[in-house]
Batch of 3 targets.
Target 1
Amino acid sequence: MNTIKRRCRFLTTTIFMLTIYAIGTQQLKAHSNKSSNLDEVIQLLARNYGSINFVYNTKAFKEVVVSDFSPTNNGIENELHQLQQLVPLSYIKKRFTIALKLNKEIEQERIITGTVTDSDNLPIPGASVFVQDTNIGTATDFEGNFTLEVPEDARSLSVTYMGYKKQIVNIENRTEIDIILQTDAASLEEVVLVGYGQTSRETLVDAVSKVDAEQIQQRPIADVSAGLQGLSPGLNVTQSSGDPAAKPRINIRGFTSINGGEPLVIIDGVEGDINNLNPNDIESISVLKDAGASAIYGARGAFGVVLISTKNPKTGNLMVSVDATTAWNSPTVNTDFLTDPYKAVMLVDESFRTAVGRSYTGYNEEDYQNIYEVSQDPSLARVETDIRNGREQYIYYGHTDWWNYFFRDSYPTQIYNVSVSGGSDKIKGFFSYRNYNSEGILKVQDDHYKIYNLRGKLEMKINDWLSFTNNMQYNSSNDLKHGGSQYGWGDQFNGNIYVHGLPSYMPQNPDGTATWRTELNNYTIGDGAYASLLYGKAKQETEEGEFSNIATLKLNPVKGLDVTASYAYRRTNYNRYRRSVNIPYSIYPGEVNTMGTDQLTEYNTRFKYDAFNIYGDYHHQIGDHSLKATLGFNQESFYTKSTTASKQNSISDDLNSLGLATSNPEALGSAAEWALQGVFYRLSYDYKDKYLLEVNGRYDGTSRFPEEERWGFFPSVSGGWLINKENFFSSLTDTFNLVKLRASYGSLGNQEVANYAYIPTLRKNIDGNFALNGRTLDYIAAPGLNPREISWEEVKTFDVGTDIALFNNDVNITFDWFQRNTKGMLTQGATLPSVLGTGSPQENAADLRTRGFELSLGYHHSFEVAKSPLNFGIEGNLSNSVTEITKFDNPNNSLLDYYEGMTIGELWGYHVDGLFQTQDEITGHADQTRVSNRIIANGGLQLGDVRYVDLNGDGVIDEGENTLQDSGDRRKIGNTAPQYLYSFRVNAAWKGFDVSTFFQGVGKQDWYPNGDSRIFWAMYNRPYDTFIRKDLVNNIWSPDNREAYFPRLFGYIALSDSDALGAVNDRYLQSVAYLRLKNLSLGYTIPKRITEKFNISKFRIYFSGENLFTFTSLTDYIDPEAASNSVNLNQPSTSANRSTAQTVPFNETYSVGLSLQF
Amino acid sequence: MTMKNIKIIFILLLAVLTGCSDDLLNKEPLSDVTEDNFFTKASDLQLYTNGFYRLLPSTSIYNGDTRAGNILETTLSEEMRSARTIPTTGGGWDWGYLRDINYFLENYQRGDNASAIAHYGGVARFFRAYFYFDKLKRFGEVPYYDYTIDPDDEESLQKPRDSRQFIVEKILEDLDVAIENLNQDQQLYTVTKYTALALKSRVGLYEGTYEKYRNISGYETYLEASIEASEELMNNSPYKVFSSGNPSSDYLNLFNSHDAVGTEVIFAREFNTALDVDHNVNYYTTTSSYGRPGMPKDLVNTYLNADGSRFTDRPDYNQVFFTEEVANRDPRLSQTIRTPGYTRKGQTQELPPNLGATVTGYQIIKYVTEPQYDTNDQSITDLPIFRFGEIILNFAEAKAELGTVSQTDIDNSINVLRNRVAMPHITINAANNDPDPYMQNQYPQVKGNNAGLLLEIRRERRIELYMENFFWDDMVRWKAGQFITRPLRGLYVPGPGEYDFDGDGDTDVVFYKDDAPGNQIEGIQYLKLDSDVFLSENNLIDPQPNFNNRSFNENKDYLYPIPRIELQLNPNLEQNPGWE
């Protein structure tokens, strides 16, 4: 404990000492000043007032001698005032830009006025406007206006502003010229956020990519991460469902650790949830990929960092912007299932008969005849009453499309966003509000998902060395879903709807009551899910509220030193109730009964997060040597507490209050906390802006490890070389604006283990499968074997990269190659004999290595088309990563576990060379019992069954010892990890019109459908599956259809891995590679001269489409993104981890919107 | 104060604010206990031992008989098909509960509540015995541990098997300690002294007969241990054979009662609608997708006639139509399968057997409750694990195998069960003087003076304990594996035609060949011969026409294989014979 205290003291003292040092050096510097020309004076001022840009004509200023000037450090205005005494100088100061000019330049000739705005029609204050090739120029004011006196012979104006492309405008005879600057995503001076600071693209030495925030705005998406998909190479975003409330997963550079490990998301300097962010609030996003960039985040930066900063208040008049979008969502997948009742009943009965020996439906010959007639003439669909088995009951002759009856073709989403920004130099604010409201796909009840985001940011400049910012955020969401089944609560898509809903059945009886079961068999339609959805009382409502506040003090105590201290406070509340009810149904006319369970469960979880950060920046330049240092301290604590309470049998089906329920109260609770402390630093050095060197590091402590193992030091070093600045390169500098080589190496930590992993605890559990004396069984079991010596996983990343810019930055290339070694992964020690009775204790014993690359190419150019600039851009990204286990304690190389040399995602399976077409093939064939268990047990192999190949020729198809050396007849048949992720975007803007298309894809990925993927396998899974895809129906083997893809109809053979389709094999392996038109948008901005009459500075209308086309070889009844969802790169189990792809369908979305500013 | 001083003070203030608290990084669990603060109160001991109940079986109680073909389904069990394979992992080689139990026994004496320590210590001993009995039945000899193994303890991890006798001694030792310490109150769902006695009765009989039929000397001790425990339960316990004086329904009601009948059931697994803890027996026995279970014809044959005579003594016992076949038999037959006059619990409508829900035509009704529980996983009858009926059968068999049986013993045991269903008594002399040739054919290994009596005891046991998951274990200990290879048959179908299965004069089932009859009448089952139903050469339903030739390997099939990975991890562990 004392050591921690000592460490802390050391740290705070160091920060303090740094301050003292900075004060000392600053004083020395003031005396050493001996300037000779005005350019040097201004440069000196620029260094002393680091936050201010100076705009002036360097050439002219160099010619002006300044005899006796020494800075007083009493504010830039005072300094300039002093300077004006010495030279004929005038200046304009706008925000952080000061434009300077020599008064002698003025030769009154002609006056040109105008406004400089960005493409959103927002004024750009402080932009430099010069007569081309002269030193005659000015800077724009708050409103972006300028006035410039130009010589008679001036031909054109050159307009520049940092972060925008330089624009040359012909003056011609005009006296009023409005200029629109296009953002220059590739500008070399462009600010790039890095950990605890910022740098420029030119001087960046690490693998950091900047994401254009505009690309995720104005898209009809619920959360930021959905919009990030494909935007940055190496940043992998995967969605598991089309449900807007489902949060996508983000990952950087592929598989991280067998224990998981996700990128750290930092929002405005503090760890945060990316999905709780209003996309429109984002100013800038950086993705930190290598150790050099993320070492400053130490233990949590091992697998990359996503840095997000939100918009800052802008000085000036109040600026209001309003966006409104309406979107229509419809499934990307085909939902046109087999609804012909006769065909469906025949298929279902046949597959049931082969497997079970009986008809499924229990229809008699006359029933079949009736159903056949209905299939010929759907208008005959009806419910009859008849006496069967001695009792009058409903008999169904339906023609039901269950999907269409219950789900919508299309459902709407509305998004509104309002923001207000403005203020003075001293105090300014930014406020925003967003309302996202989406309905659900369910037709018979109204589901919804709503999000509210509120942000208030206030910046106060207290004096010239102290400023204060308060950044407050409140987010809330509300998600209402209907569901339920005969088993109690169940999500709509949890599986129940997929069974027993035959087209020949109907959802409702003639008297309006719900159907549930036909007495001709004993099966329950949708296991009660459909009746429950019709009744509409079983539902789940989730509410989440998050309040966070970041208060930041910025100090500039002495020149060159900036200290930032912030305190972040976040409180999150998660509330959910789930209600299931007794669901009414009718089997016998006039008799209504109920099924299911009447239960209300309430869940509540609270999260508390507190963080304190303090860091100082110091920079110093001596001649060609420039040094920057950052040193800081960070401390974070997390706390969570959950309660769950349930009760049964409420006196009301409509009111959901535990107080109204009457029986079986149960309650659960849990709580946990953890904390982190760290000291971090960065030193950057450059020589002549040509050789760049940077060292980063962090000393981190976490509560998750025992005291002795708690602290870790995580350093990194990076270097860069700007080849284009070398003399030998000078002949090429017209073409090459930037040629940079860079490399980084660093060692980071991963602390992704359970909170108290090293403390043996007796876990209290509840086993809901057991009752004991009228209560659900609760018990305590022996603690697992927890070692006390567990510690950080070490993640060592090596990265080499290059950044190249050509042709005035029109062409940009960035390439990175990396190798990431994850060492000492905490894993179960060597598998011990089962008699141990528990898992072997964990140790830091496994290693893996991930290698990959990222490439991005961009081309941007402005052409002149019909006297208006046409801005055109094309960008492409490609990335890949492959992970191999390099150390794992699995001496027998059992395939049940990781083994040395294993590639993550590899899929082992049998080889199938077709279907049995002749009896001879069957007679001489190897024993297929292991992979055709159900068929062998029920009649044996027949023509049309799947033919497995006896690869090892031992006469038996099996998995051998299931080891690498003896895998029987199995071999590697594919890989479930996504490979070659790519995307490209083409955009153009002309005369107020803009168009952009964005494609995203996965180059290679395999999927073996889960045995219970009811959409994929239909009757082969369970004979009575509700949704039979039409493309399967004609592909079933029969003597007349020998070339069919699917085998002889036989129920249940996909369900278990010992059956013909359930056993993983190469014939039914699916490729889920895809290329998708993620987004297409078209917009039109009404010219300002029109909108200005209405006091509107910008008015844009736009159309956008999401997921419009998909190219994939997978059946169109399944979305390839849904199919790959279980391949959680952070947590694969074995190759058996395969998804069912049964989820809320992904959406094809069309939206229209408008945005205006005034 | 100069500006610079103010700045410096300001920064110092910030530095102080970083306020390193000493214990920020020391976080103790907030919602989990450690062993230091547990095991002190009686409720702690109870909470811990609750976990042991999780090793009790559930659905296997009612469908476990499929293993030896005592219940036939659409798919024959792996055991019956000789299709068992050596698993890589799992396969029942699971030792987690033993660790939980041993950990408890190493820690439970920390408190000072002596009576709680005694009782819950007994509970743990009972479950350790239960655990090892399970392992013994499945794998034969296994390594024995009465301590938690340290992961560094190579010797324990690499231990070879202990001998059968050693393990059984340890089981009986645990049970004796449990019997001595456990509470004596009558409980349905928790372990008491009586539960431990019942297990001792079962283990003793199992091991005694297992060794006797394998000619291992010393088996008598185990039979005696069994007899001793059974006698204690028969003489000094509140349990008796449940009877309300209704021979035609008492047996049925013992099993379809929602809560187990506490007068006879010693220990049951609890099921509860409100808690949503359910099993699936109604669905299992009444639908066509959970295997369509049916009683095999050879068992139906062994039910005696109501007058005590043998049904199989009539030469045409395989060619008697259903309604005649099931009339005037041991009343337990009509309380185990659907026979004419059957009504569902709580209903009055008489139902014929549903041939769509049973592969043999003999549709099982044991445990089946009201139709409202018919949907998937909604059945809630408690399932018995030990009942007094078994104890007295154990007693009679152990006595008979030991050769010390008297007519009084039989009267106090089997004949009590016969009283419940108003069946004539067994007399030792009659049985031994005229052994049933049909039974003898089933169990040719039964020899000696008491052979006739032993066969009657086996008849009684199979009938009384049907569908309670005894048959595989009985077959194993009797070394009667060849029984598994018997032809599997269902009821007699004379040929195509219309049949009345419930004796109400109306046709219930039509068997046809070739084309389906036109004008089908609703409520009648139409079954196509050689398609829906296959018949054997003597016109009995053949539910498994592909498996008429099966085998049983006497040197291999009584035991299960140890998973491959365990042999790789512990070279001292040898695979069971025949599985190498």
Target 2
Amino acid sequence: MKNWKKAWLKELDNITPELSDEVKSAPISMGEDTISFDGETAVKSRKIQKPLVLVLVAVFLCLAILGTVFLIPKNQRVCLFSVEINPSVSFSTDGNGVVTGVRASNRDADVLLSSKEITENLVGKNIGDAVKLYVDYAAQAGYIDLNEIGSAVRVSGCLDKKAEKLLLDVSDSLKKYFTSKGAYSVVVTDKVDVKEFCSRSGISQASSVEEVSRNIISSETLVLVREASGMSKEQLQNQYKSLIGDFGEYIKNNLKANIEIVKQSAEDIKKIYDLNEEIELHENNPSYISLKDYWSVKLLPFISEYEESFGNLMARMETSLADYHDKYGVEISNVLVLKSAKLNFDKLPVPLDELSIWVDGLSESMAEALSEILSDVMEIAGVLDERFAELLELPTTVAEYVEKTAAVLQDKLEKRISANSESYHKLRDEISFSDYDNYVSELIAEYGSLDDYWFATKK
Amino acid sequence: MDERQIDKLLTRISTGDNEAFEELYEKTKRGVFSFVYSYLDNYASTEDVMQTVYLKIKLNIDKYKQGTNGRAWMLQIAKNLALNELKRRKNAEYNDGLISSEPTVALSGEVTDTMRRTLTVEERQIVILHVLWGYKHREIAKELGVPTGTVTSKYKRSVSKMQAALKEV
């Protein structure tokens, strides 16, 4: 399957046209009234409006210079929040606390934010709700153990005095979350300046909150993707392999998980293959030419009835194919598909009974070398996880690396959520606010402050 | 093709970033071309429509809302323009009194031609959306208004048909 995709992509690179000069030079509409497909018209309208734009810019600058921060609507101000559990993320919001961007601060956060569903759910939400949702995702993935007493989340806000309430909102939101989940987890909040925020978020130093916000909104969400810029093909591939973990184990585990189904599929394919051979060799096969397989015979015109024994064979074949389709979700639509399937099973270097044991002994390079056969075998057995087949191909460009990295991370996230499901869903009694507050007071009494507690937990 | 990346690029384009526009083109040209071609089956028409798609993106980028579905927005533009071209062709045939439709010009691409020969338009578009645009089967199912299982089985069937046809070549 991989080969046709590769060939297709290469073909498309050769046949897709370049951008025409007209399109390249056409202006980008910035909201002018006159929009037309005629590039010339669009250019003319921009030229006419240019002096007006300059006047407007000058007026705006004057307003800004006069320090009219009170005239600037609240939602054009910017606030920043860093949420550290491990994983750590940074949020950018407007002055009302509505999330405008989210960015992974470390690689563990990449796993969580690789999910499009998660990042889409965070942007556009009020920061209190967004942080609560993020912490819940982290808990589902096992990054925070709701059953463990004493885990901690630190939320740092880089915001002006008017927006301080937002930090309190986040703290309250998390307190409600933890108490409702019966979790004695602590929320440490902290107000920081831009420099400290950048340090905690892994963002290169910036001079203003607005600059950091732009960075969060416009840069790549994931750390791994940001790091990929400028890497050579070899570096990308090594990075990708280390991301998967033991690459060979990944291939083997996928196969071993489905070995029984593969074995059964091989037996069923052999039965269908043998049936088809009987059909081809039957003396009453009505085809006069070489195309005597089941599918070719079915297509023969003017045949209303088969000879009895041949007809029984055809009926058995029809039933077998329908059963195979029902069992595995795979349609064997012609003799080529059938022969290819049989060939793939035959190409496996050991009997299927021993495959599980044999796969264990494979080196990574051998596992990789056999991946093409393995994916073909798994496809006809209806157990091919398409992502698995695609993940086996190493990236050759940054764009491919980015796509595949996201897929691997999502795979890891799903596995983590699945492995942690029992712990996350364990029944815990809700905690009252007073019990929770007493618990926090005890921690402060012991450690001096929640900040000190935070640092103590991170040692 | 990651939806978030497309959204980021479209957001950058909306600030006047022409470099982002050219990057968007490089990242999406295969998907746009194949999608339009699935309607038109003609290289010359596809090329023209494709250029218009990107021109329209530039000229209407202010209408794109950041954080929404950039892929779907682009594909809607491409679909509308492809359908307009089909209408234009039909009207041209009517006005010129032609009986036959504009001859399709096959592309010199084995896989592309095989797809055109062996798959229905819907099957082609399912394969294009999944392979080139990164749509999951359930997302395609939502777009087409059919169950996810239908998309999965159509996709598998399409791949089998193509593999069989490619092996015959």
Target 3
Amino acid sequence: MWAEVRNLREGIDLGTPPRDGAPVTLTVDGVEVTVAARSSVMLAAAQARRPVPKLCATDMLEAFGSCRVCLVEIEGKRGFPASCTTPVEPGMVVRTESPHLHALRKGVLELYLSDFPVREIPDGWSEFHETLQRVGVTSHPYGAGRNHLHAPVDASNPYFLFDPAKCIVCSRCVRACEEVQGTFALTVDGRGFESKIAASQDQSFMDSECVSCGACVQACPSHALVEKSLFPEGYDRAESAEA
Amino acid sequence: MPNPQKPEHSVITTCAYCGVGCGFKAETVGDRIVRMTPWKEGKANHGHSCIKGRFAFDYYNHPDRVRHPAIRQSIDEPWQEVSWDVAIAHAAAELQRIQRVHGRASVGGVSSSRCTNEEIWLMQKFVRAGLGNNNIDNCARICHSPTQFGLTSTLGAGAASQHFDSVLQADVILIVGANPTEGHPVFASLMKRRLRQGAQLIVVDPRRTESVESAHVKAAVHLPLRPGTNVALLDALAHVVVREQLYDEAFIRARCYWPEFEQWMALVGSDRYDPDVIGPEVGVEPDAIRAAARLYARGPNSAIYYGLGVTEHSQGSTGVMCLGNLALACGMLGREGVGVNPLRGQGNVQGGSCLGSWPHVFSGYRFVTDPDTRNTFEAEWGLRLDDEPGLRLPNMFDAAVAGTFKGMYIMGEDPVQSDPNQQHTIAAFRQMECVIVQDIFHTETTKYAHVLLPGSSSLEKEGTFTNAERRVSRVRKVIEPLAGLADWEVTVKMMNAMGYAVHYDHPSQILDEIARLSPAYRGMSYDLIDRVGSVQWPCDAHAPEGTEVLHVTTFPRGRANFMLTQFVPTAERTTDRFPLLLTTGRILSQYNVGTQTRRTANVQWHGEDVLEICTDDAELRGVKDGDWITLSSRVGAITLRARISPRVHAGLVYTTFHWAESKANAITTELSDWATNCPEYKVTAVEVVRAAVVPARSATAAQTVGAPS
Amino acid sequence: MSGIVASGMVMDPERLVLMANQIGDFFAPYPPGPREEGIRNHLRTYWDPRMRAGLRALIAEGGVGLYPHVIAAAVLLDEPLRERKGYYGPPKPPEI
């Protein structure tokens, strides 16, 4: 019971929560895998050791389906469904790689990259950086444009900071604060390009209802939310952003 | 922003703060700990954490750390740094001298709930084998000793019947005298998951805490009773259960003794405990009492979670028995989603309880007066043991004041700050001739010590902790002990210096010894824990990988018992001079007496203890938010800042005990639980007036946060 | 609380009386017989021998302030035939 919490494993992120349920067998990239009913295709792929690249999905949180990176091809189904929000069916045949899928993922990641501090790509080790490396995206074709690279860093909390320049608005922090911690201190404020993560009534983290549990920091895939203790030299924005 | 530094190594260990015992990965660069991240496979926390374990670990290399042993002839002299060997030889010689002059029972020891199981075990072994008496106690004395007494009397086992995950199967959650949102936050998050799914919540607490109402969570019933009236209220709930025949007869006939139940039914079913009588007496609506009782009895799965708001009373043990009786009457035991669960406060206080760090029992709550148990210990340890119960910690202080208790070896405890009636505690220490304190920082108690031995934090040693779920997990060494020795090594040296030779190559051998001598730990070993992650006792031939839920088919004594729980009001009464009632508690960011958390950036959230008072009581006294006030009781007076708070109602005030400067225990009284002497921290008659003189100490935290690690 | 403490005593007589009476309060609802047995067991199991001696000394001087059933229970401490292992649980009639 309660596989969502009890079947988590260190060292592997299944993408969506494990489930309890009758076994369902499907094939991912030719590998047969059996998972519990109501598991996602993303989880099945991870279990089959054919993990799908992802950004807004993590196995401690329910699927959200916003980043559009985890697309797959499923035989008999049209289009390119997001593997995180697609439940497994018996006998499903899933393909995680194809030229089409690669092009789609590359397109999405290049868009993310167009609003991200480029100087910090080479040495980064966050999940976002790993996904970029995995898909083979190192640059984007867009020129300079509107971006969030000058948005102010919120360093009010003594233990962690929030740098909106690196935020990809995947909402993992918001969902972690709701689902894991239960404090509901964070929201996504605004829409479209204006979307940003806000604490309580758009206050600093320290002034908000945040109880500093660190669940959002743990969930953030891009080091936008990150522990101050990982910056022995301090954390001033070293360089100004550039396109 | 530059990229963050990537940690090089990680070690899986267990948090040393509260009784949830979260699994963490301690990540390092070189020999520096750079962060603690929650372990997804931690069965207590499932990848979650709170502000303390996650971030407040910097204290471990704070400049204030005690790094050298020291001794002094009298407490008025300065400390003289010496080597380990000199300090330990001196301590042992002093204890032996005192015993020769004042008798074998004139010395004793206290173990620490922040130290490992192995270290607690060695401490009680030091007292029993090294000192030859049973004057060993642990800090559960002042928090959950009534849990052990009350639950063992009724159910047969003095520990939580469930694991934390069991709350995910509960339909009704009854919280009594606890505020999990602040005291056990990671458990509270799990509980809130279930509440958001539709489980119902009943809260018995004088204050309107966050556990009563917070984002997407609201208690169906809140019973804001007057402090000191738990047993009256709980008996009133029982009254409704018996009078409306909501009890589970099949369960009682199968698992308990029907004649005992009838005796209990007669007591609680009497008119004395009718909600219409008790309601006004305790300050809650009679219909709310009925609603709560019906909700709990109906279930189908009702779980009780309780804390120090039940135990720290003169009827603490009786209150715990009431909870046991209620669960038995309604059949809420022996499966997932139910149970009676004490929320143990500290990382290893359950360990201290299980391992016999008590004056009257060995490990597994087996009496020192029982020759069979004593024989097994005597055979293993190779000497005769004292067969009489020893002194409890408060009684050690009484005896010190009376002049018959002269020496103490204290590991990781600060009685001067944490024990009640501070003047009495200080008077006791002043009478002692040799106080040996082993701690990581100077504390209020080290001011009265003669030997100072550097302690080691949980990041600096190997061992195990037992959390509130009876779960034994590994504590793994992340860095070397700052002063050169881990706590267990120091106690081994102390035993040898007292003339009782012991040797262990590794703490795993100590757990092996515990396993040989303790039925509940019989199958435990480091190998097993490494293999399965953690093990909940009992772990034996019947349950080789541990036991998640207790009392499934049988109770430890076969059947369970109903205890008669008559309400006896506390001797502490409000008077014209002291018309308000003070109750105390914890806050999320600080841990207990703040020895560790005051030395971290957590002080930014809670830089001082304040007095929470409601608008009406404050206005009556001309007190505004932020004013300095004098809080006085018949025992003493302290100065605090006032905070107008909606959490407390008229007649009730509240404060925390995390800062030594506030001296919260200068005003708590000598009253205590009838069975265990657990102090009645939760009920003190007080008065609040505007302070005549504003204290010199600054408004914000005086402690400096250490250099970045 | 301060009071004259005889040598060998571990605490103030007032405190001993308070603590003993508190135990008496708990066992009061039990029928006579088990009630005294329960108090006696509790004292034997949980009180340091010097505390028990202190209580007996108070009773020898008249037991002022102690409940009668507490006095009756403390007297049972001296009966050697009742010596047996400690016990958790509700008071039961004494075994013969």
